Amino acid sequence: MEQLLNNIQYSWTYFFLLAGILLISYFGLRFLRKILDNTNVFGRYQRLARNLTYGLMLIYEPAVLLVLGTVFLLVDPVLHGLLLLLVLLSGFSYIKNYVSGRIVQFDYAISVGNRLGTAQLEGIIAEMGRLGLRIRNSEGLHYINYSELLSKGYSLLSADQFGGFYRLRIQSSSSEDKTDPKIRLMDLLATTPYLDWNHRPELRGLPGQEETFSVKVLVKEESHLSDLIYLIREWGFDCTTFENTNKQPHGNSDLL
Description:
Elements: H1 2-7, H2 12-38, H3 46-75, H4 77-90, H5 92-104, E1 115-117, E2 122-128, E3 132-137, E4 140-145, H6 146-152, E5 155-156, E6 165-172, H7 181-189, E7 202-205, E8 212-218, H8 224-234, E9 237-241
Antiparallel strand pairs: 1-2, 1-5, 2-3, 3-4, 6-8, 6-9, 7-8
Helix pairs in contact: 2-3, 3-4, 5-6
């Protein structure tokens, strides 16, 4: 192995070739994750497969950055070493938040739609980025970085609905319309005034239930939920709410 490493010619050609291979592999993982999110390939092991893929992606991205950083250093150790040192010093806070984010997201209960509380605020996780997350409550949208979240602590709050995230069970009850019910439903949802499109509705088919979907939506106000359900029923769908939005499988993060 040592001899193999010594025989590698570290050059810009090697760097970009390696970067291309790793980038293609990364998008391959993202594609696999999308398939697992929208299909039921593994049956009762689907959630396990989805979580394993999600965990692999959490590790893969920083590993790629570490590998490419090492090769970049070896292309020109002196000059590139100084450049990397400058980047590390100037971007230390960003790097700290990025690493903290990887740690936080291994807690699978931390996902978009779940309710989170800190010493300063509490609300629904509306968005998860690489450096921090946004929490929505009645006062608006708040940003908190991952380092602060880890250092000050957080708690996952009760499953009672707060804000506007709900998961609906929707089944097509009309046999006259030959349009794909999934496409028709998404087109109709795009016309409703009750949804907050900062979080696009997430629609998944339910295993073993033909033309039945689990749809996660963000309503602008909690009082709009009953109006939304009534409107969906008028469209020719059967619609009910799941008892607990927060117990749905993990994997809705916008981070990856």
